[in-house]
Design brief:
Radius of gyration: 19 Å
Number of strands: 2
Strand content: 5-15%
Oligomer: single chain
Strand order of the largest sheet: 1-2
Distance between the termini: 14 Å
């Protein structure tokens, strides 16, 4: 079930603060880069399958490539190729991926939620888990 797009403001706030995209009331992250299994407030399960956040890594790497292209162009134009050029690019690259990965993961979580892949678990009368979309707070 695809959810209605709330607003760019909602997406930006939940992404930059790392909050749950469904309720927005608590952090989705248990540590710097690891997500909680479920939201403590609305019970939305953040990670259903292994590897569901490889997309966020691709977003972080893509952004890093753009940053490295800009840094390379600026350094080559200003200083030309110099000793230690590769080291500078390595430090900028690692620093950019490290700084961008958490917001990229939060954005990916928001995107998965918007497309209906991040949902709430329910246990039926036979004790089996069923999945239903989280419609709390939705018209």
């Amino acid at each position: 079930m695809r959810r209605a797009f709330r607003s760019v403001t909602h997406m930006t706030v939940t992404t930059l603060t790392g909050r749950c995209p469904a309720c927005g009331s608590t952090s989705a992250f248990a540590s710097l880069y690891r997500l909680h299994a479920t939201c403590p407030v609305c019970s939305v399960r953040f990670e259903r399958d292994d590897g569901s956040y490889l997309g966020s890594l691709s977003v972080a790497y893509g952004f890093t490539i753009l940053v490295l292209a800009g840094v390379t162009a600026a350094l080559v134009q200003r200083y030309g190729l110099f000793d230690g050029f590769a080291v500078v690019l390595l430090v900028v690259g690692v620093g950019t991926v490290t700084a961008v990965y958490r917001p990229a993961k939060a954005w990916w979580l928001w995107w998965l939620w918007t497309m209906g892949f991040v949902v709430t678990d329910e246990v039926n009368e036979r004790g089996m888990h069923t999945v239903r979309p989280n419609v709390r707070g939705r018209p």
